[in-house]
Amino acid sequence: MLKLSKVFLYDEPSVPEIKIEVLGEFIKEKFCVEVEIRDRFFEFFKDPTRKIAYDLAASRIFNPLIPFEKHVPASEEVTFEENSFTNLTNTSNIVMYDGFEFKQIIANAIPQSESQSDMFHLICTDKLICTYDYDDYRYHGRAVICSNPGIISTTGMIEAPAKPREYYLKMFENISQGLNLDVLKNQFKGKYLEYHDVRLSEIIKGYAMQALFYYLTGQPFCESRDCKLYNAHWQEDLLHSQTISNKLCSQHQKVLDDIFNYLKNCSDQASPKVKGLP
């Protein structure tokens, strides 16, 4: 198991519902590791050369049906990305980014002094990260990219897991009849996550655990719907595993206990001894 001495946790202030301070305490309590909370990643690591903004614009996905193709971004796209670093207003136009390109851009921005294996970077972002699936030959939105740096997309938490099947049936029915979709949203309210949903603060804890489990054990997911490590593809399953069951299964709780004890032991050994004290 990898030694982990510190987690750098980056905020997404446009989504205050994730409650970054609460998330930091959760990680510290569950994993027995020091947590440093930082500002939004691209605001914390400022880039006067505009290279990060350029690379982000180049990582956009324009055709979800073909594997990633990097393009030369227009100056307006670069400016959009640069403005997004400090803009706290969510845009109604969702832009898709290739998840692995996005991860590499972040990794390149982290200084060498903080790229050691015992340091873990967990970035919360409102950008929609996607990965290409060769099983059905299309991009899919993702809520989490498990790596170091790990990435949690708040937009992906809402858009990636599918809404109830009945929602889509009713939606097509309403569209064909020219009915207002607001009625449909009210009918299914509470059965799926919405933007600025108060449940996001609980949901994000599960994704943070998945990212950390992957880095420490190589096993981020669980097949049990009652476990917080369950890889939910439907909103109903996501809400069940993270807010109703809201715990680890017995097997993964034991793994977490082992992680906690191991990291605590590493921390105790690293702490300097005070003369005259045991």
Protein architecture, described:
The C terminus is likely disordered. The protein has 11 helices and 8 strands. The protein is globular. Helix 3 crosses helix 4. The protein has 278 residues and is an alpha/beta fold. It has a single domain, classed as 3-Layer(aba) Sandwich (Collagenase (Catalytic Domain)). Helix 1 links the parallel strand 1 and strand 2. It has a 5-stranded mixed beta sheet, sandwiched between helices. Helix content is 44%, strand content 13%.
Q: What brief labels describe this structure?
A:
single chain, 278 residues, alpha/beta, Collagenase (Catalytic Domain), five-stranded mixed beta sheet, three-stranded mixed beta sheet, 8 strands
Helices, strands, pairings?
Elements: E1 6-10, H1 20-31, E2 34-38, H2 41-44, H3 51-58, H4 75-84, E3 96-98, H5 99-109, E4 119-125, E5 128-133, E6 138-142, E7 144-145, E8 150-153, H6 154-159, H7 165-177, H8 181-187, H9 200-217, H10 235-245, H11 250-270
Parallel strand pairs: 1-2, 1-4, 3-5, 4-8
Antiparallel strand pairs: 5-6, 7-8
Helix pairs in contact: 1-9, 3-4, 9-10
Question: Brief description of this entry?
Answer:
This protein has 278 residues and is of the alpha/beta class.
Strand content: 5-15%
Count the DSSP helices: 11
CATH architecture: 3-Layer(aba) Sandwich
Nearest-integer average pLDDT? 91
Looking at the structure, what is the overall shape?
Answer: globular
Low-pLDDT ranges: 274-278
Structural class: alpha/beta
Q: Can you list the strand order of the major beta sheet?
A: 2-1-4-8-7
